[in-house]
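Structure (tokenized):
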């Protein structure tokens, strides 16, 4: 999957061989960061943080209030809610490791409510948050390293001209077909990358 890797990935083993103490620390920090990412995404919606395309005044607001009441989540700022969710997730995980974590259940319910009200694109990060909580301690976020390896490799052309368009959804690249020297594009974006191949580029970059 793009942006993630297991803790025993080949490229990470190569890094551990170079500096066990440093990369063990960074690996453990990365595993914990996946939990932080997840609760931060939840906290945005639970605290009513303004986001483009999100209208809390309709049914979404009452749906979120019902979820908060069902799971006993407190009111608070985005940061306060995020801190609460992380502490509760870890506490529940330690006390009942085999049971379904209520923070994970709430995240799934929140993702369903946000998808129904705002569409799958706006709710996408809540889906990723649920996946992170499901695989907490078992997967690492490697998005930036994977992106850099993709951009800097010299095997396959991956950059194409585009315009950044923001309509009823978050800003997305709209690729410009048939660009010429008379219409020099300002923005270029990666398109159509083979994910397994990009992980191979990452492993080769680390081996250099």
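Design, position by position:
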């Amino acid at each position: 999957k793009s942006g993630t890797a297991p803790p025993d990935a080949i490229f990470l083993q190569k890094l551990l061989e170079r500096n066990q103490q440093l990369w063990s620390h960074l690996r453990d920090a990365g595993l914990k960061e996946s939990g932080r990412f997840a609760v931060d995404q939840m906290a945005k919606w639970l605290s009513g943080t303004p986001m483009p395309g999100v209208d809390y005044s309709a049914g979404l607001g009452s749906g979120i209030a019902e979820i908060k009441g069902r799971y006993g989540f407190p009111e608070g700022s985005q940061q306060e809610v995020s801190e609460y969710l992380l502490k509760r997730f870890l506490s529940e995980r330690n006390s009942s490791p085999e049971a379904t974590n209520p923070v994970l259940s709430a995240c799934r319910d929140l993702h369903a409510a946000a998808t129904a009200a705002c569409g799958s694109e706006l709710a996408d990060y809540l889906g990723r948050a649920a996946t992170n909580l499901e695989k907490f301690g078992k997967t690492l976020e490697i998005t930036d390293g994977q992106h850099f390896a993709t951009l800097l490799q010299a095997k396959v052309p991956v950059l194409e001209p585009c315009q950044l368009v923001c309509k009823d959804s978050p800003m997305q690249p709209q690729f410009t077909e048939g660009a010429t020297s008379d219409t020099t594009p300002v923005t270029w974006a990666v398109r159509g990358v083979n994910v397994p191949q990009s992980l191979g580029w990452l492993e080769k970059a680390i081996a250099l």
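Reviewer-requested clarification: The beta strands are 4-5, 140-141, 159-165, 172-175, 187-190. DSSP finds eight helices and five strands in the chain.
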